């Protein structure tokens, strides 16, 4: 039997409507599936390209929060509109009533002794004229 993950996220892929010179965003809903307080941290392979708020936080038991991931305005289209950027959402159980400002710097280090769950997210770019858009 597999244990229930600490958190679930929706959607499970970041989809950005890509337009040149325009900033766009995607909201992620993060749900705490446990009776524990869960801290999270968002990492990306392209930190200069995205703005993530909040990028760390603590979610109360059975609660949820919204993380807004903003794609900065881009000056050119990526090759074939493919995006190789990835996001990692790490989570770990923390003590009751822990505030995000109280998290030790090594909370998400593998050698901290904390049990850390990793959720990987892919990024997809959608153009207003793409076939997927025509189906909506």
Automatic annotation (TrEMBL):
<dbReference type="GO" id="GO:0005789">
    <property type="term" value="C:endoplasmic reticulum membrane"/>
</dbReference>
<dbReference type="InterPro" id="IPR000535">
    <property type="entry name" value="MSP_dom"/>
</dbReference>
<dbReference type="InterPro" id="IPR008962">
    <property type="entry name" value="PapD-like_sf"/>
</dbReference>
<protein>
    <recommendedName>
        <fullName>MSP domain-containing protein</fullName>
    </recommendedName>
</protein>
<dbReference type="Pfam" id="PF00635">
    <property type="entry name" value="Motile_Sperm"/>
</dbReference>
<feature type="domain" description="MSP">
    <location>
        <begin position="6"/>
        <end position="126"/>
    </location>
</feature>
<dbReference type="InterPro" id="IPR016763">
    <property type="entry name" value="VAP"/>
</dbReference>
<comment type="similarity">
    <text>Belongs to the VAMP-associated protein (VAP) (TC 9.B.17) family.</text>
</comment>
<dbReference type="InterPro" id="IPR013783">
    <property type="entry name" value="Ig-like_fold"/>
</dbReference>
């Amino acid at each position: 039997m597999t244990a229930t993950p600490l958190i679930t996220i929706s959607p499970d892929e970041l989809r950005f409507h890509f337009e040149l010179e325009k900033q766009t965003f995607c909201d992620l809903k993060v749900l705490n599936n446990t009776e524990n307080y869960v801290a999270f941290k968002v990492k990306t392979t392209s930190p200069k390209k995205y703005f993530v708020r909040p990028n760390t936080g603590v979610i109360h038991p059975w609660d949820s929060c919204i993380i807004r991931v903003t794609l900065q305005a881009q000056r050119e289209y990526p090759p074939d509109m493919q995006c190789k950027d990835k996001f990692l959402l790490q989570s770990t159980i923390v003590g009751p009533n822990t505030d995000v400002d109280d998290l030790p710097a090594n909370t998400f280090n593998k050698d901290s002794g904390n049990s850390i769950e990793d959720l990987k997210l892919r990024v997809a770019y959608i153009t207003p004229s793409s076939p997927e858009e025509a189906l909506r």
